[in-house]
């Protein structure tokens, strides 16, 4: 690991200091590669060669259609999902000071998923589904997590928090299974929805989540500095003129907006919020603001890479994206555990 | 410490075990007398002792309900015993087979044999292989720290997630009939148990109980620190290997009967600990509580939406998760180890 | 031993009486039926049949037998809608994947009709309740439904009625085939059968019951090689491969209450609207319960009705 030596987190540091320049450019280039990969690889007959020809303007109508109408929307949706989950993970981890605090593991995604399953049961079809339902569910899940970290003793115990989240996810999953048993017709839609996928989603869904993504990113800009201050301890943050309670509230809302939007876009995807900040921290060190900057290119890159893999693994069908992110993410979880000591935040 | 204090049961534990035994008996009798076919309690008893005139009652009670209740009791007891052993060895109340991913791995291996990936070994054997693999992985990844601390558990979480994803991949790649055949394996159900698996489990459980009795004293000393345990004459390494082996065996065999019904292994020892005298490992009470829990959960699953069934794994998750959450979230000064 | 089938099932009464008259007293004798688990001896005409899959319920009702128990249809909470009026308040004895044996006992059957994939253990338990006829008909063949109707007709002591039901369907096929001949130009009879899911299409195999009927009336059904061997039912498809099912006709099965709504959802997918069939307005929304998991003479008639209705829109 070539983590650059950084000075102890100082809230008055310039955000994009020079040590961040290289990793940011490298991640940006990698993202560009993955985007191109996402446009040229698919489960269908449009091969990379044909796709490249189409991009150069000399390809067939068919190839151009597949790229414009199928691969471009899912690339955009993958970008937005990765961005949202990466940043949500980084925020949640910084606030709980727990490197394992991941929206998927902590049950925030499960909350959003359960809310959507209930909505489907009560007659909302996935086509008319609004982002709002998922965000309300995510907010409930996120508030639970925050409440749990405020319980004495639990905030300092990363594993107990993660186990509580896993238990909550398991409970919500079991309840969803019950709902599916009681209404087989809804089950068909829910089953396909809860596996997590960016295929076949329309740009309309993307547009519906755009406003909340913009609001959330604005909030991130607002809370980044106070959050970095809180890393020095609450007393230091208060000394610097911040209000920890208010910051926590803002972050809760931000994470809920981000995870709700991501879940509405792609269904519950676990481990993305763990993998992305983990990679980012390896380059940025503990400063949350640098981590957030690096999450911007890394999050989309991870989700898109997983999506490309999902198309190629089972052609002419596709593997659910959620399965691929679990296969990528779980080893990272193991790597975090394997690392000599739990990296403290 | 007096030698007998670590082996002989005390009066509180005896009473607790007696009460739990009654609970199991009550759950079994209620389970036997409830179902789609209405049979009067008196007739149930006549059928059991073989004096009934009604062949339908005899068939329903002795062949359908009794075999299912027995499968539930055995798998519940096996899971609870496995959980209790592992908690003791890891000195961590959360270290149970379900949480460290053994259930999921056993399921993944069993599904692999059911959906015909070319691996033609009986599901029971495959489940055992899966359980052993997951345990070995969890230990390997936890590194020098052994089972203590968070790494063991988080490694297990990761292993469980991978095994779950692999199961999904396999199910999505096979024909729909094969996927249907593998369905009970993925949710945890007593409906599709095979007679052979139950017999293997019965043998395994009996053998495990005998071995457990032989190491129970050593297990009790593990509640103290290693030096104290050694001073009390315990051969640590041997105890750990034997105990862990039993835990893996019991989990694998139970999963091959009922699928991944995880939380039983955590809840039953919890319940046993609250009713027994503190400071002792409540192995008997845990097994009894596990049997009762499983039978009651299956009864609920059978009757709530009759004639359709809710798999027992869903019931244990819905009943067990809130309790586990409460254990994890209550502001307590007591450590979890 | 009754000579009179239940009169309340008015629709089947005529066929059933015919069958009963033709068979006459010979019925009362016991006969041997070949099943997947060997020959099973059945006495007379069973009065209470429990059917453990849809392909048994349909023939049983079609030959006028009294069905007292059935499993729910895939994606529903009851028997399939098309057969509901005939089945009446039939007892539900489980789901296709999990039979509740106690519910079977409670239905007090004198015969049990079971699918080919019934395993040995289940078979032995069920045999303790009543004679079990496990289908030995190879699935996904063009004449699977005929053979199963004959098998179950014989098991139920209504062989004549079974032959009549099969002949009825064949006559109906001939009618619809003539209609296809008249209305659809010969080079535009290629068709594909798809189930529409929120994430995209599931292509159904050429051997599926409804697909064989489409073939029988003159359509050329293809799964475009998308359903691989050993996967008889259907295969989820990447949207990118939608262009590979560019036939003149697309039959779109959906489990949603409103097939039209699913059709709209599909139309909004750009890849779908590019299909030939979509442009020609030859995408037919059909009921997935009927088209993707039913089989038997009654299902055949209902499916043929659907095809006829779809062709009616073309009539000059």
Q: What does this protein structure show overall?
A:
The complex is a heterotrimer of chains A (345), B (337) and C (316). Chain A is an all-alpha fold and 345 residues long. Chain A has 13 helices and no strands. Chain A has helices at residues 18-40, 48-55, 61-96, 108-121, 131-150, 158-182, 184-194, 203-230, 234-239, 244-266, 272-284, 288-313, 321-338. The model of chain A is unreliable at 1-17 (pLDDT under 50). Chain B is mostly helical. Chain B has one domain (3-329): Orthogonal Bundle (ABC transporter involved in vitamin B12 uptake, BtuC). In chain B, α3 packs antiparallel against α10, α3 (55-90) packs across α12 (283-303) and α5 (123-142) packs antiparallel against α6. In chain C, β3, α2 (54-62) and β4 (67-70) form a beta-alpha-beta unit. The longest helix of chain C is centred in the middle third of the chain and has 25 residues, at 159-183.
Draw up the topology in text.
The complex is a heterotrimer of chains A (345), B (337) and C (316).
Chain A lengths: L17 H23 L7 H8 L5 H36 L11 H14 L9 H20 L7 H25 L1 H11 L8 H28 L3 H6 L4 H23 L5 H13 L3 H26 L7 H18 L7
Chain B lengths: L10 H23 L7 H9 L5 H36 L11 H13 L8 H20 L7 H24 L2 H12 L7 H27 L4 H6 L4 H23 L5 H12 L7 H21 L8 H18 L8
Chain C lengths: L9 H14 L6 E6 L2 E6 L5 E3 L2 H9 L4 E4 L13 H4 L3 E2 L8 H6 L4 E4 L5 H8 L4 E3 L9 H12 L3 H25 L6 E8 L2 E5 L4 H8 L3 E2 L12 E3 L12 E6 L4 H9 L2 H4 L2 H4 L3 E5 H6 L3 H16 L4
Parallel strand pairs in C: 3-4, 3-6, 4-5, 6-7, 8-10, 8-12, 12-13
Antiparallel strand pairs in C: 1-2, 8-9, 9-11
Helix pairs in contact in C: 1-7, 2-6, 6-7, 7-13, 8-13
Give keywords:
heterotrimer; B: mainly alpha; ABC transporter involved in vitamin B12 uptake, BtuC; globular; C: 316 residues; alpha/beta; Rossmann fold; 2 domains; six-stranded mixed beta sheet; five-stranded parallel beta sheet; 13 helices
Strand content of chain A: under 5%
The share of residues in extended strands of chain B comes to under 5%
Write out the CATH superfamily name of chain A.
ABC transporter involved in vitamin B12 uptake, BtuC
Order of helices and strands of chain A: HHHHHHHHHHHHH
CATH topology description of chain B: ABC transporter involved in vitamin B12 uptake, BtuC
Please report the total strand number of chain A as a whole number. 0
Query: What general form of chain B does the structure show?
Result: globular
The global form of chain A is globular
Report the sheet with the most strands of chain A, covering strand number, pairing sense and barrel closure: none
Unreliable runs of chain A: 1-17
CATH class of chain B: Mainly Alpha
Quote the CATH topology of chain A: ABC transporter involved in vitamin B12 uptake, BtuC
Q: How many DSSP helices of chain B?
A: 13
Number of folding domains of chain B?
Answer: 1
CATH architecture of chain A: Orthogonal Bundle
The CATH architecture of chain B can be named as Orthogonal Bundle
Mean pLDDT of chain B: 82
Question: Could you tell me which chain pair has the largest interface and how many residues each side has?
Answer: A-B, 44 and 42 residues
Distance between the amino and carboxyl termini of chain B:
22 Å
Fraction of helical residues of chain B: over 70%
What is the succession of H and E elements of chain B?
HHHHHHHHHHHHH
């Amino acid at each position: 690991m070539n983590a650059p030596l950084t000075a102890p987190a100082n809230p008055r540091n310039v955000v994009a200091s020079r040590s961040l320049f290289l990793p940011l450019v490298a991640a940006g280039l990698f993202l560009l590669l993955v985007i191109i990969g996402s446009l040229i690889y698919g489960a269908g007959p449009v091969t990379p060669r044909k796709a490249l020809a189409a991009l150069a303007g000399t390809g067939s109508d068919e190839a151009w259609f597949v790229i414009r109408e199928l691969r471009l929307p899912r690339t955009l949706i993958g970008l937005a999902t990765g961005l949202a989950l990466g940043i949500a993970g980084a925020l949640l981890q910084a606030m709980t000071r727990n490197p394992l605090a991941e929206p998927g593991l902590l049950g925030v995604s499960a909350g959003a998923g359960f809310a959507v399953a209930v909505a489907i049961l009560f007659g909302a079809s996935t086509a008319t589904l609004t982002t709002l339902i998922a965000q309300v569910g995510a907010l409930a899940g996120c508030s639970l997590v925050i409440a749990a970290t405020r319980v004495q003793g639990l905030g300092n115990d990363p594993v107990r928090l993660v186990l509580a989240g896993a238990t909550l996810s398991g409970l919500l999953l079991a309840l969803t299974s019950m709902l599916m048993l009681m209404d087989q017709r809804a089950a068909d839609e829910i089953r396909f929805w809860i596996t997590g996928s960016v295929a076949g989603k329309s740009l309309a869904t993307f547009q519906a989540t755009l406003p909340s993504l913009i609001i959330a990113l604005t909030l991130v800009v607002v809370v980044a500095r106070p959050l970095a201050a809180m890393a020095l301890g609450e007393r230091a943050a208060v000394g610097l003129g911040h209000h920890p309670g208010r910051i926590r509230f803002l972050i809760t809302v931000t994470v809920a907006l981000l995870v709700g939007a991501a879940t509405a876009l792609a269904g519950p995807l676990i481990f993305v919020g763990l993998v992305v900040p983990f990679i980012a921290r390896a380059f940025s060190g503990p400063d949350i603001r640098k981590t957030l900057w690096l999450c911007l290119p890394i999050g989309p890159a991870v989700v898109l890479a997983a999506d490309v893999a999902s198309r190629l693994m089972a052609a002419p069908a596709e593997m659910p994206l959620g399965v691929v992110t679990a296969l990528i993410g779980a080893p990272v979880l193991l790597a975090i555990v394997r690392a000599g000591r739990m990296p403290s935040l | 410490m007096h030698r007998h204090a670590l082996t002989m049961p005390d009066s509180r534990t005896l009473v607790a075990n007696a009460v739990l035994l009654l609970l199991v008996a009550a759950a079994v009798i209620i389970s036997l007398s409830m179902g789609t076919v209405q049979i009067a309690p008196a007739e149930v008893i006549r059928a059991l002792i073989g004096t009934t005139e009604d062949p339908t009652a005899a068939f329903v009670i002795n062949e359908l309900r009794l075999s299912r209740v027995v499968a539930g009791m055995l798998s519940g007891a096996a899971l609870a015993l496995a959980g209790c052993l592992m908690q003791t060895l890891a000195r961590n109340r959360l270290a149970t087979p379900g949480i460290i991913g053994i259930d999921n791995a056993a399921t993944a291996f069993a599904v692999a044999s059911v959906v015909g990936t070319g691996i033609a070994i009986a599901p029971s054997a495959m489940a055992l292989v899966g359980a052993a693999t997951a345990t070995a992985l969890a230990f390997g990844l936890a590194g020098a720290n052994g089972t203590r601390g968070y790494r063991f558990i988080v490694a297990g979480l990761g292993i469980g997630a991978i095994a779950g994803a692999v199961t999904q991949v396999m199910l999505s790649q096979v024909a729909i009939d094969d996927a249907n055949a593998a369905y009970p394996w993925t949710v945890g159900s007593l409906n599709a148990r095979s007679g052979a698996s139950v017999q293997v489990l019965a043998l395994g459980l009996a053998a495990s109980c005998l071995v457990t009795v032989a190491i129970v004293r050593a297990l009790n000393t593990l509640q103290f620190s290693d030096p104290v345990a050694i001073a009390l004459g315990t051969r640590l390494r041997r105890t750990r290997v034997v105990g862990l082996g039993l835990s893996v065996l019991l989990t694998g065999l139970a999963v091959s009967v009922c699928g991944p019904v995880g939380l039983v292994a955590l809840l039953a020892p919890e319940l046993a600990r609250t009713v027994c005298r503190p400071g002792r490992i409540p192995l008997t009470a845990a097994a009894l509580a596990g049997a009762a829990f499983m039978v009651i959960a299956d009864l609920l699953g059978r009757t709530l939406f009759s004639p359709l069934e809710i798999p027992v794994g869903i019931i244990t998750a819905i009943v067990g998760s809130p309790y586990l959450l409460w254990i994890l979230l209550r502001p307590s000064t007591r450590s979890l180890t | 031993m009754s000579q009179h089938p239940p009169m309340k099932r008015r629709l089947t009464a005529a066929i059933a009486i015919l069958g009963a008259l033709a068979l006459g007293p010979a019925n009362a004798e016991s006969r041997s039926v070949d099943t997947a688990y060997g020959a099973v001896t059945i006495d007379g005409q069973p009065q209470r049949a429990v059917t453990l899959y849809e392909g048994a319920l349909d023939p049983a009702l079609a030959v006028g037998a009294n069905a007292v128990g059935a499993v729910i249809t895939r994606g529903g909470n009851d028997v399939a809608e098309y057969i509901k009026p005939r089945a009446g308040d039939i007892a539900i004895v489980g789901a296709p994947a999990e039979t509740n044996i106690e519910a079977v006992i409670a239905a007090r059957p004198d015969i049990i009709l079971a699918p080919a994939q019934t395993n040995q253990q289940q078979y032995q338990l069920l045999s303790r309740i009543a004679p079990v006829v496990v289908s030995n008909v190879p699935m996904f063949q063009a004449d699977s439904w005929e053979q199963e109707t004959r098998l179950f007709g014989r098991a139920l002591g209504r062989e004549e009625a079974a032959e009549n039901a099969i002949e009825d369907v064949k006559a109906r096929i001939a009618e619809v085939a003539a209609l296809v001949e008249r209305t659809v130009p010969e080079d535009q009879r290629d068709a594909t059968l798809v189930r529409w899911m929120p994430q995209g299409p599931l292509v159904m195999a050429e051997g599926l019951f409804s697909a064989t009927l489409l073939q029988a009336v003159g359509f050329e059904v293809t799964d475009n090689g998308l359903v691989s061997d050993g996967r008889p039912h259907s295969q989820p498809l990447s949207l990118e491969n939608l262009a590979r099912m560019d036939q003149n006709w697309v039959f779109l099965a959906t489990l949603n209450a409103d097939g039209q709504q699913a059709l709209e959802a599909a139309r909004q997918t750009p890849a779908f609207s590019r299909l030939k069939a979509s442009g020609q307005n030859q995408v037919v929304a059909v009921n997935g319960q009927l088209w993707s998991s039913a089989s038997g003479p009654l299902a055949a008639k209902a499916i043929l009705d659907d095809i006829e209705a779809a062709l009616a829109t073309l009539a000059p």
